[in-house]
Amino acid sequence: MSTTSAISAIQIPLAGGDEGAFHIAIQLPGSNGISARNAVVQLDTGSTGLVLPASFFYQDGVYTYDAAENKITSGTLMPGVEIHGPTTVIYQPSQDDIHGFIFTIPALSIGVQDGKPAAATTQITAIGAVEKTPHMCGIGFGRTILASNPFLSLIGMSTGEMYPSFLLTTKGIWLGLTPELAPRQLGSSVFGFQQLTYEGTETPTPHNSSQWTTPKGYFRVSNINPADTTSYDILMDTGVDLAMVKSPLGNLDSEIKAGSIIAIEIPVDPSAVKVCYSFGITGSESVKLGQGADSFVFTTDAEPGVVPPKYLVPRGAGNFVNTGFHLLNSYQLYFDAQVGQVGYATYPA
Q1: Concatenated DSSP letters for 303-349?
Q2: Which residues, 6 or more positions from 152, have their beta carbon under 8 angstroms from its beta carbon?
Q3: Which DSSP state fits 62?
């Protein structure tokens, strides 16, 4: 059965950035002679919510923060913007703790190019940081909700007039594609899908919710568990260029060796579509990944046709793999919030 929407899908132009990261331009519109506020943000599938300096939400970017009282004591908010209570965000693996406040904004323009937005959201919440200057746009699903997901908050998505989805590829980003249209954007692609489970509390399930489970898959090491079917949560994270793993296998620090091959596999339907991200291990070292002490990491090497993560970072016990950005160099990622499914496809030749 085909799926149709009243509002057509749109492509979001990128705003430069380094290889291994997506950046887009956004704008908080002004009115009545008040200038708009503009920013360039990094897209992050490892979080949900827009996190910007608090100055973004104030006219002329000017406000006063009282650290002792933990409150903003002066400043004129942009038209229609409201400030709410304080909050804290902690990003991994940097362990960067960001303190700020929750803001409600009436609309956000995204994909701004030459002064024109590709799309606009309805009213959303966002986080304004004090003392630090993050520029992150969390578009993830299966993540802790920091604030609204801008990519699932476009006009028409909550009402079903625009299909609530996004397609991420290294060749472009599209919002609002139906499952039938997603395979056609880069030629002819064959997607495999994994059904997710709704974790929210709203009934009925909203059209555009981010609250679906993280995809499941396997983490295998050639010299330890080459055929293991233990289930892991598998996060493809555009916010980092390294990979992280929490595993029940024991002390990975000593068991993974130079020459080990890591294989991260995500089962999908149809099973003829294979989603497997493999890379080699060349050794280990200690590096500083953010605040605090140095971290033990494994250094990596590419398998044929694959861009490896910068490092593989063991993070203790658990069942979780963060592949980092570079899985996206091998597979397109399609998230469908309407029915709660994630799709992967190799790039057409």
Answers
A1: PTT----SEEEE-SSSSEEEEEGGGGGTEEEEEETTTTEEEEEEPP-
A2: 139, 164, 166, 208, 209, 210, 337
A3: E
Strand partners, 276: 265
Which tens digit of pLDDT belongs to each residue from 168-226?
999 999 999 999 999 999 989 999 999 999 999 999 999 999 999 999 999 999 999 99
State both tokens at 99.
Answer: 């303190």
| Strand-pair partners of 75 | 63
Q: Is the link from the previous residue into 348 a cis peptide, with omega within 30 of 0? A: no
DSSP 8-state symbol, 47: S
- Tokens for 151, please give them: 């990519």
Distance (Å, whole) CA 340 – CA 140: 13
User: What token pair was written down for 343?
Assistant: 């799709």
Residue type, 2: S
pTM for the full model? 0.94
333 closest CA partner among 142, 168, 165: 168
Residues 6+ apart with CB under 8 A from 247: 219, 232, 314, 317, 318, 319
* Nearest in space to 307 (alpha carbons), one of 324, 320, 285: 324
Provide the 3-class DSSP secondary structure of residue 254.
Answer: helix
